[in-house]
Amino acid sequence: MLLNTADQIALTARKLTLAYDGNVIIQGLELAIPKGQITTLVGSNGCGKSTLLRGMARLLKPQGGTVYLEGDAIAHLPTKELAKRLGILPQSPSAPEGLTVRELVAQGRYPHQNWLQQWSREDELKLEGAISTTHLEKFANRPLDTLSGGQRQRAWIAMALAQDTETLLLDEPTTYLDLAHQIEVLDLLYHLNRDAGRTIVMVLHDLNMACRYSHHLAALQNGAVLAQGRPAEVVTESLVQQVFGLHSRIIPDPISGTPLCVPISQFIEG
User: Fold this and answer.
1) Inter-axis angle of helices 179-196 and 149-162, to 10 degrees?
2) What sequence ranges are listed for the domain ABC transporter (predicted)?
3) CA angle, 167 then 46 then 208, to 5°
């Protein structure tokens, strides 16, 4: 069910259809992303989560339907204006060898520059603020490829923060990270939302992490939204069975109180 109050919605997909090389991945999808909240897209591999994120960022042209950013159709927004309002961090981004953290983060300011003004005091302040927020001060002049996985991911998030958009999309920001670094990145995103009011939309594979860190979940299946709402409303044993083909028990997370999915293996008896 879509939200009804326009000023409470950051992104809206209406009858959205997305395809790669003629192969339809998303068909007639309807989705509303609450403003100022963390929304996570969940679902099995190949269900269309990353495709949807790319479509909402205008990296993939729809075959049908429209994506709206706070009421404005993104297809009609000038590229620089869209980049000032909406940032995206793709899955497993890469950078030129030897690029320092500071140089990477500075790239987030490009949408705010023009031929009259290449770099300003505001650009410098935003850059320093992004580095400070992600706790990368002591790594600022180090090459990106010398950092740990968690530090590199924070550097990419810092670049997105320097872009200074109200809405930030992240495709699997914890991929290839160990558990400690996953928590580090998710804690950072949580604080960005809580302290700065940024709207965050991300794709996560870990359903329990999605429940713990999200205000809003959208469960996808076969290119459509099967359910969306608060984690406690969305994550049920029947939904886990339907979306992931997995028997489970849903219990309260002892730390956060959010739904905790305990898989049931056919080889292990309780």
Assistant:
1) 20
2) 11-247
3) 65
| Cβ-count burial 111-131 (b if 16+ within 10 Å, e if not) | bbeeeeeeeeeebeebbeebb
Residue 27 placed within a domain: yes
Binned at pLDDT 50, 70 and 90, residue 1 comes out as very low
How do residues 135-175 score in pLDDT, each as one tens digit? Answer: 899 999 999 999 988 888 889 989 988 998 999 999 998 88
Beta strands 199-203 and 167-171: pairing type?
parallel
Question: Given the DSSP bridges, would you call strands 199-203 and 38-42 parallel, antiparallel or unpaired?
Answer: parallel
pLDDT at 267 > cutoff 80: no
Distances (CA, A) of 194 to 19, 36, 147, 159, 214: 35, 9, 27, 19, 11
- 148, HSE (Cβ side, Cα atoms, 13 Å): 11
185 lies in some domain: yes
Q: Is 41 within a domain? A: yes
Neighbour count for residue 258 (Cβ, 10 Å) = 18
Q: What tokens does 196 get?
A: 């700065």
Q: Decide which of 109, 136, 165 is a domain's last residue.
A: 165
170 plus 265 within the same structural domain:
yes
